[in-house]
Amino acid sequence: QVQLVESGGGLVQPGGSLRLSCAASGSIISINYMSWYRQAPGKQRELVAGITTGGSTNYADSVKGRFTISRDNAQNMVFLQMNSLKPEDTAVYYCYSRLGFQIDWGQGTQVTVSS
Description:
The strands form two sheets. Strands 2, 4, 5, 6, 9, 10 and 11 form a seven-stranded mixed β-sheet that branches. Strands 1-3-8-7 form a four-stranded antiparallel β-sheet, with no helix packed on it. Helices cover 0% and strands 54% of the residues. By secondary structure, it is mainly β.
């Protein structure tokens, strides 16, 4: 089992940037598929971005060109660089790990985009 702790959320103005971090412990995540999800009030949790063990990435259409997911296996961490933030990006962002049938979630970090 992997313990995941997100950080880096906060309040930012539209057009601003934030970098989310996900620190993993309890297991090495270099062979795990890692991703970021988000959940806005009253909405379902949705996939934002994912990254495979080989570094291949995928993004939700709504964030393509603005968000970048990356991983540092040596540090056992995953990151989400978010640029050109919009009010509709406001949500709780969750780190997700999958290895086979083992799925783990972080506790989430709040991102609020507002002027």
